[in-house]
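Input.
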Amino acid sequence: MRTPSPTHPGRAPRTPYGGGQDLVPETAFEGMAFEGQDFGGQSSDLVAFRGCDLGRVSFANGTLSRVEFGDSVLEACDLANARWERAHLAGARFSGCRLVGLDLTGALLRRCRLEACNASLACFRDASLREVRFQDCDLRGSSFQGADLRGVSFAGCDLAECQLSFAKLGGADLRGARIEGLRVRIEDLKGLIVDPVQAAYLAGLMGLRILP
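Output.
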């Protein structure tokens, strides 16, 4: 029986997932609703979720290489310490998710939104992000080393102790974010959008003194 997602009444009806707890490689789930499943600790490859709604689903401590999430919504899901290297996330929304220690090395993120997520110590190393918005996320100690962050917004986020060295930051918007302890090279700052307080802080990192 097809029932609409209770949390997204504006979306088309989703088919409740009634399968097992194993993620078989090269499996694609389309237009399905997942609620409370525990996929944690599994290793798989090329699993795809397209047009799916996921609520309180766990992928913690698992390895899903080249996993795909297309036009899907994840709410209150647990991805802590999961390895999603070379993931492809397009049109995905993460809301209130636990992303502590999530490894997205080399991932592709397109048109994604992450809201009120705990992504401290996450790894976005060498990832490519386009039209991505982080809103009110805890990203303390995360690594974006070598990532393409051009045009990415970090409104209201905690970026303390984040690693941004060698990242492409042109058009990235840090206004309103906490940036104490940010690790970044001077040459990486070109085109970065910051507020006046952040500008003064970054000037201090470069050894500049701002006097009245």
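DSSP finds one helix and 16 strands in the chain.
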